[in-house]
Amino acid sequence: MVIGVICRTTDKELIKSIVTLPDLWATVAEDGQEPCAWEPDMDIAWLVAQDDDGQVMGLYSLIPNNCVTLEIHPYIIPRYRGKKAYQSGREVLAWIELTTSYSKVVCQIPVIYKNVKLFAMRCGFKQEGINRLSYLKNGKIVDQWRLGVVLNEIQQT
Fold this sequence. Notes:
This protein has about 160 residues and is of the alpha+beta class. It has one domain: Gcn5-related N-acetyltransferase (GNAT) (Aminopeptidase), CATH 3.40.630. The chain has helices spanning about 10-20, 20-30, 85-100, 115-120; strands spanning about 5-10, 45-50, 55-65, 70-75, 105-110, 125-135, 140-150. The protein has a seven-stranded mixed sheet with strand order 1-2-3-4-5-7-6, with helices on both faces. A hairpin with a 4-residue loop joins strand 2 (about 45-50) and strand 3 (about 55-65). It is globular. The two termini are about 15 Å apart.
């Protein structure tokens, strides 16, 4: 079931306007980052997720790790979290499988965000390890879960 549209964007202002939304920024930014100073890395791929009414639900950034693996970061506007966000995550993975030569997608999620880990796992990711003491939030350095999905496994979930 397609609930919307996934498309690539190079609109730097759109990217910045979504990532720096106060409710979203409070979650995605590490300590010491300021939204007014943040600039999107335009050397990586940015995907826009829209619902079936054409409303922007959020973004996904895709960072090549090597010729096989992409690292993904979701930026879902809080009011769109839930079933539509989950479906957009699945659609992004399908987009990657259909339009790129990458065969694996990975992510790192700070252990303080159990809801994000559950989101990733609903999209087909599996926990693969721990990146110890690697993320600074609210004055504490915390571990990050490392999750991954091999794209040919997506149809099986």
